[in-house]
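Posting for a labmate who doesn't have an account.
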Amino acid sequence: MICRVNEHGNFVLIDKAKIPVKLGEGGFPDGNIAETAFDRGIQSLNKLQQKIVRFQVDKTLAFATSAIRSSKNGKEFVRKVKESTGIQIQVIDGDREAELIYYGVRKALDIGSENALIMDIGGGSTEFILANSHQIWWKHSFDLGSSRLIREVNPSDPITKEEIRHLKEHLQKELSMLWAACEIYPVNIMIGSSGSFDSLAEMIWHRFHTEENPLVKTEYHFNLEHFDAIYKSLINSSIEKRFKMKGLAPMRVEMIVVAVIMIRFVLKQLKLSKLTLSTYSLKEGILFDYLQKK
């Protein structure tokens, strides 16, 4: 994301790009990022460096999350990126990642005075934050990113009922801290942070044509009946069929099934009645945090 800061201290988007690197693809042999994924990451950052030069960027902010912080060769990756591109990557822990996600969501919409559950699904980790507009009450980063869930389930094509059951049992156990936190800080709304939630909102828009494309705004309120309809389509679909689904970004075709199962499982487990999309997430949170400190 390339921006300029205007006279009011707000950012104006100049250019935006998403490159699916998939650092977790192929698992983590001996605890390391696989060689092909490692090289793909370096190549992707070289492409972004070309944009940085073209747009004459003054300040570059680069952050690494789950895959880098949890792999043995993560530090080597950071070093190679610096050598190859000049970009200095800052590796952040899950707590800081969750905090920055909150800053992004808070800029996208008015959370309000009542508590909300913010959910951000990454490849390596998923962050949950319990917060309102004023403060964070609780946050945690779980090693339950979509890449890790795929390795846990090794789903068929399409996924089977037994595999879905196994995934839900895994989530029930691994998210015990979340269930306990929601007893202390009750919520009735989930805010999904960008990523898979973007794709789900766009798929709903393409199927039901209820309003203008939700991704032109910073927030979108899901109709849960429409969400359930998309959920059923996804869990019954093959990869080939998902490539043809309108609104589903190709980079999310492989991951979207485990992601939507986790989203719906959390909604049902906590009996949440509302689901909202924030099109801002970690990267916007990083930017707003930087501008505020400036």
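Reply:
Got it, the structure tokens are right above this. The first strand starts at residue 2 and ends at 5.
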